[in-house]
Amino acid sequence: MTNPIADFKEADVILLTGSNPTENHPVIGLQMRKAVQEGGTKLIVVDPREIEMAGYAEIWLRPKPGTDVVWLNGMMCVIIEEELYDAAYVADRTEGFAALKETVASYPPEFVERICGIPPEDLRKAARLYAGAPRGSIAYCMGITQHAFGTDNVKSIANLAMLCGNVGIKGGGVNPLRGQNNVQGACDMGALPNVFPGYQPVSDQKTIRKFEDVWKTHLSSKPGLAVTDMWSAVLEGKLKGMYVMGENPVVSDPNLHHIRAAIKKLDLLVVQDIFMTETAKLADVVLPAASFAEKEGTVVNTERRIQRVRQGLKPLGDCRPDWQIICSLSEKMGVHMDYKDPEEIMEEISEVTPSYAGIHYERLEKTGLCWPCLNWQHPGTPRLHTAQFTRGKGLFHSIEFIPAKELPNKEYPLILSTGRLLYHYNSGTMTRKVDGLNRLADEVIMEIHPSDAEEKAIADNGVVRIRSRRGEITCRARITKTSPQGIVFIPFHFGETAVNLLTIDTLDPVARIPEFKICAVAVEPVS
Length: 527
What we know:
Layout: E1 13-17, H1 21-24, H2 26-39, E2 42-46, E3 59-61, H3 68-81, H4 87-93, E4 94-95, H5 97-104, H6 109-116, H7 120-132, E5 136-140, H8 142-145, H9 150-163, E6 174-176, H10 183-188, E7 195-196, E8 200-201, H11 205-215, H12 227-235, E9 241-245, H13 249-252, H14 256-265, E10 268-273, E11 285-288, E12 297-300, E13 305-309, H15 322-332, H16 342-352, E14 369-370, E15 394-395, E16 414-419, H17 435-440, E17 445-448, H18 450-455, E18 463-467, E19 472-479, E20 487-491, E21 519-525
Parallel strand pairs: 1-2, 1-5, 2-3, 4-15, 5-6, 9-10, 10-11, 16-20, 17-19
Antiparallel strand pairs: 7-8, 12-13, 13-14, 16-21, 18-19, 18-21
Helix pairs in contact: 3-6, 3-7, 3-9, 6-7, 12-14
């Protein structure tokens, strides 16, 4: 997030798209509702499903899945045509405006309606509301990113925010709501194939020498594989072993037949986790890890805030904190790694990572600090890009619409979209062990629109078979207008009825994220 969570209450308007915060980010969802109900903030919701936040919205736009670039370009077309954009900001802080203007001119509201299904006047109303607000915040999540061209969606969001001068200001910003605890911290610490900690590129020789001096070992300048590319590499014989930490790909990754075939072909699978997950059951070696309550350390939340985690319990049985397991394994593999505690690791992080240079345990006792934090005296950076962008001027990207990889046809007439429920989390490794949560949501239930259910003779609470080009599952159906006609929604938490047997493993060419939000399916009742 470019801005802190507290800034939602400072916004005059919030554009919420591809995110269902009341179920997936309840704390942030509460902040947004308070902003609307108590602070007078206007809310624009853009989502194919009628999520709870649509009930708080001034405007709810309901586009067809996979058409985000179209409605975003359409909003910018209106804003530029009606001269509602921040001309001074665009001139002083950005470049590439002429090319953007030319591109979005081809997306007038009437064209947007043909592709997205959004009425032209609704689009114009939303564009005017966002552009007319002194402080506009955009919040999005995996409904924007989990597409074959999710990177284009994010760039288009950044275009809209810059066009209206909303980056680098209080109450504004481009704010991705992180989907998992400490996913921000994992990326910060180099859990990406092409960077060291602090997003320092592995291709930079000066950076390599710095880390080689600290770690006393030789490092490669060749980027590794994205996790979603590893499975194909296994099947091609290029990857022989895999070490999985805190991940359950046998449930959470797309096209599970592909995943399971790759796992069977591995020479060695090691899984490090706090429970015996579906993936751990297939492993050659399982390393029992300690939970968050059993270890010291830090996490980095969605607003880039580094916070302390303190041990409350002794690890059970043979469980050990992740850092101890990694250090022990490293020693056995010939690379010396003898940190005495997590604080010593954090001191090394501050030494080698410029954006963390001022992060020390002593400073994290109370509220934490947002990176970049450049030295001991630096207060941290709750808002990014206040004076200028990292590259100097913000660059507008001219993005054209590219349809989803797999669209409905006669054989597979419906679109399947996947997501989360309020009561469970990701592959259910933790939440599905809680009796109370299981009483609230103990099985897969598919949402289907009444007209689709009537056409296919599907009864409410009846059992249905869902087929895609990759597999099939059966579950019960709920007839509801939450999902629009032509679209079914299924949560992915349930390993015994894994919806990812159906999903397509098409990847975004840049981010390598799968297209979880769109695949073509057929649905039929099971007697």
